Give the backbone structure.
Amino acid sequence: MQRLKMGMVGGGEGSFIGAVHRRAAALDGEIELVAGALSSTPEKALRSGRALGLPEGRNYASWEEMLEGELALPEEERIDFVSIVTPNHMHFPVARAFVRAGFDVICDKPLVHTSEQALELVRAVEKAGTIFCVTYNYTGYPMVRQARHMVRSGMLGELRKVIVEYSQGWLVRRLEDEDKQARWRTDPSLAGAAGAIGDIGSHAENLVATVTGLRISEICADLTTFVEGRRLDDDGNLLVRYEGGAKGVMISSQISTGEENNLSLRVYGTEGALQWRQEEPNHLLFAPFGKPVQTLRRGNPYLCEEARAASRLPAGHPEAFIEAFANLYLEAAAAMRARRGLSPERPPDFPTVYDGARGVHFIERVVESSRSEKKWLDA
Amino acid sequence: MQRLKMGMVGGGEGSFIGAVHRRAAALDGEIELVAGALSSTPEKALRSGRALGLPEGRNYASWEEMLEGELALPEEERIDFVSIVTPNHMHFPVARAFVRAGFDVICDKPLVHTSEQALELVRAVEKAGTIFCVTYNYTGYPMVRQARHMVRSGMLGELRKVIVEYSQGWLVRRLEDEDKQARWRTDPSLAGAAGAIGDIGSHAENLVATVTGLRISEICADLTTFVEGRRLDDDGNLLVRYEGGAKGVMISSQISTGEENNLSLRVYGTEGALQWRQEEPNHLLFAPFGKPVQTLRRGNPYLCEEARAASRLPAGHPEAFIEAFANLYLEAAAAMRARRGLSPERPPDFPTVYDGARGVHFIERVVESSRSEKKWLDA
Amino acid sequence: MQRLKMGMVGGGEGSFIGAVHRRAAALDGEIELVAGALSSTPEKALRSGRALGLPEGRNYASWEEMLEGELALPEEERIDFVSIVTPNHMHFPVARAFVRAGFDVICDKPLVHTSEQALELVRAVEKAGTIFCVTYNYTGYPMVRQARHMVRSGMLGELRKVIVEYSQGWLVRRLEDEDKQARWRTDPSLAGAAGAIGDIGSHAENLVATVTGLRISEICADLTTFVEGRRLDDDGNLLVRYEGGAKGVMISSQISTGEENNLSLRVYGTEGALQWRQEEPNHLLFAPFGKPVQTLRRGNPYLCEEARAASRLPAGHPEAFIEAFANLYLEAAAAMRARRGLSPERPPDFPTVYDGARGVHFIERVVESSRSEKKWLDA
Amino acid sequence: MQRLKMGMVGGGEGSFIGAVHRRAAALDGEIELVAGALSSTPEKALRSGRALGLPEGRNYASWEEMLEGELALPEEERIDFVSIVTPNHMHFPVARAFVRAGFDVICDKPLVHTSEQALELVRAVEKAGTIFCVTYNYTGYPMVRQARHMVRSGMLGELRKVIVEYSQGWLVRRLEDEDKQARWRTDPSLAGAAGAIGDIGSHAENLVATVTGLRISEICADLTTFVEGRRLDDDGNLLVRYEGGAKGVMISSQISTGEENNLSLRVYGTEGALQWRQEEPNHLLFAPFGKPVQTLRRGNPYLCEEARAASRLPAGHPEAFIEAFANLYLEAAAAMRARRGLSPERPPDFPTVYDGARGVHFIERVVESSRSEKKWLDA
């Protein structure tokens, strides 16, 4: 199998998510990093690229140079896709430019800052006909796919209630001055109009949408900035109403002391319920009405095909965050191969630009709801 | 030690909570059941009393007869207190009558149907100077007392967020026609203006208030009746704002498939966080900021005095629901003895008529908020 | 229902297990404590009885006086049974005397010190035809009864492996000089020939026998005394072979730092496996071959009849140690009533004198195996 | 950083562990697979290599050709090391040949079939001065390194008891005829003299040795073959005595229904205890004497340096099996670089040929003990 050639924008020195993307891309041996513009500071970009062993000619000082440089190469040598792992504010210009130039894109979330940008990007992707994957990475977990399968196949009956939470504690205190991640993620010009709800709340929204297929109809939000001087929300609680009548709660926090990366989902239906926790991702609880709760564990033959396909190791040999991330890369890579006629077509099983756009819209509505005196805002 | 003499109103055949109260009262050998009017149906009352071995002359056909009969006895033979375990609508008349007659009272929750009734009862208790305990039984757990101690002694710093939940699944389907408990608990004339939020949501409110000392300032509620034909709410989600700036979420549900009696509390402060789950009540999680999470377990010498005093068995020999319930009886009994000069005075460590009144007010406000278009209602 | 009249030998001031027995007996309102000889020190016996409110004339200074005194009463006033909760060395003389006098007996474990004593007691019980219950209390847990049911009904297929463990940490350090419990439990003249293996290992043996019906055929034991100066084993590891070919491991320890009362059982068969832990006794894990693990929880309608009958509260309202203990009292009381013709006969569902005798034999063989150079000793 | 060049022997079609090694090697971008002899069947070897995209000239039909072919290349183009992932019987000839030729080696476990082979290999490595890593992969987990640190730094006091278990259920039934893994792992000519105890018991031994530093002094083993017709043990229980007086139990099973890959370790000392479970590898329980149990979680600043260094992601973003495996590759790669003078010397933090040899010896002694009538065998 010919490896796909990846370029990367962002993800240089001090980046957290850049290394995650690189490991996710490398894990299965189907993708090769061949080019990069790893920082918005040219000097840092070049230094980061050298540290990673990027070939000299394709270690670019800026994403503009990279776009130009790659387009100048013979088509078969060019990168197949670009992975965008910059702070949020750069997603839009970089993604738009690469899409317009016909490159496939894997882009971190939240997609862009505004719905207007999102719409423009959606149109660009539609026009270009390229592959566009947004790394709502938690949907890559095998047991999330199992959960989705169980909801879709009716094992929960009619859905009534969804409790989703994404609680962290890393911003309990003011870290803005000492920590790069904290700095940009609490700066509206880099992170966008929202803090916790943008950074992690949007993962929660995407997880619910992916697993249940439910779409939010109304929102009632209460965002708070607990840490003095912080410029964006660091905590949020939402009442949510879904189309079709289900209801629920959504919690997003970065000031919940002691929490690490507690993304948890519970879905209650008339015939059964599911519970999944990202921090122990290898199992899924299923409570069929009136019967003992079952613990479904990754790697077992009793799981659905999508869950088994998303798994690399036998049961009991735990998989985790990077494998889930890598599943998005694998699925996007399969779609890219299909687009090139190298493998059969199949529906995308990764979050697309539409998911990304919906996430941006969600963030906007939550921020507006939180500022509103009105109880319910249409979503 | 002279046993206190208990009379019971309600709790006859088919009652769930009556037997709980009797076991809680019997557990420590300090209280003796000597009289009862165990049902509103005279025949059933008498049959139930005989089954329990009540002495013939004190097995009353009605609570009115019991009040009269006991008052006719020499003072030293009378019951010391009455335990009221009827459906909710009878709490008010029975409690008021016994208080007025000078008896101490242990009454199930929610206290009464309306704030007006609650106020009247509070005044009656104040006038009579009697002991009045409302069985918000979950506060009797040793690890709840430990949690309260830790919050009060500042181990959590300033409180920021409280997530409390009381989720059950027993009303997922329509049980009203076949189950006595379901029938009266969904009948507004017997249960009051609220269903789940009254029956279990008020426990959640009380648990938060007991552990944290926080008082609710504003409420935003969304109550739902999911099961067709049901006359009261069977699910509710609340955004809550507390005096002093803490915020939180409160969840109350009886249609959460697979949930049994999931009362769970999480409290996040600037210096630490706590987590407790009623279904595994013998431990409490404590996350001090920046340090490993600790699992505090009942029965250990490192616990606070109140937690140790509320415990009967060594660590690892689990205690549970009935012991917690019995702790309220023990504490109320101690207060009754103190009132009679049989033991030293001490501040009540059980939910009083004031807690009961606050609970009634809470239920009223939640119901009103749920009906309101206004986002925030003063609590 | 007429309450059964209980006398108690032992269990006075400073006793741990005496109060447990009293609470277990009181819990369900079917038994009344009417007499006692609560200590081997007459003065302490009387003081303890007064503290418990025993009637003056039946608060005896010694068990001999109690036996004599009760026999002197009219038959219908006498105690129905005696509960023996002394240190181990007194079980034999007291139990034998009361059995011979025709009283039913509930006796703590281990039954007696030697197999000879056990045999004599068995014969005495057979001759008297009385009820004799040995409080291997852990078998009273509803989920242990569920486990037994599942094994017996073939849900595990052929049993292959049993891992049982009873680990505590309370004797990590030398407590003999400061703690009454530690003192007598490490004194061979009071506790018998074994320490941990006698005190708690015999519970493990009984739990396996109860749940699986397996009988040990061969033992290979390694007992250790880790704490300097201690006179009995405080730790033991055993390889076990069962009749029929199953094998296993048995662990018993009181020096396992951090362990509280960790009695855990795992049973593996060709068709399924079970796991139960005493510290979280309300659930039982069941792993059917090739299918998701199920968590069976107490209080649910899907449980077997014996498990449901042994339960007092709905699911999610946890029961624990005292309820399990009380189940033995309830079952023994039912057998006593049946013996008196007050209720229908039924097979005893509590550990009998035969279980007690088998436990004594087990302890003896373990001690001998540990001293032996021979690998396998017949059990 | 220049990538190290890896060759692989074994690991072609149908291999489980080959893909694990390749992912582990790829994860961090420091190692590149450039050559392979992926099967003992030449045709299959070549087909497997092509599927992986091995360069044509270095896709060898046999390991002998690979050795010859690589030696024929200019030194700077040759593979730096070979990864041996064949069935066990091939470890010895392949490893010996590559060591003698001066290549560094990463070899799967158990190292070889006999102590004689092990000794020969140890001598070859000593003579060649090459790096030799045996993939006892579980020692690569960050929390295992934390556990080791805590034991070594005295936080547990004097060690008294070790309970280690490696329980699987995948061989509950006869799979030998249908499953490649089952076939060779139960064939003495391919797997060696032991089944479960060789395949997974040796992991347990290594985990104990790594974490505690304890060396076994005496063994008492009971191995069993439960499945009819199986040629090697599928279950084993061991009593173990360690140098210095600690004792313990070691359990190894592949017929424990419902178990997946349950490698669990508990270490009890006079001052504290530790517990770790491979299936939930991101946390470690620490019970300091007399204090609450702590849950130490990967990725936190309170961990020791080795644990932090072995971690790639922030707390709450779980890592798992492949990362632990990759840690051995990283450590071995660092040692290889140091040997080439490309980085500073440092002591190896990976299982070496000595660990491998000790493991072989352990397996031999267990098998002998199991056959012996003698209770204790020197280890």
User: Anything to note?
Assistant: Residues 321-339 of chain D form the longest helix (19 residues). The two ends of chain D are 44 Å apart (CA to CA).
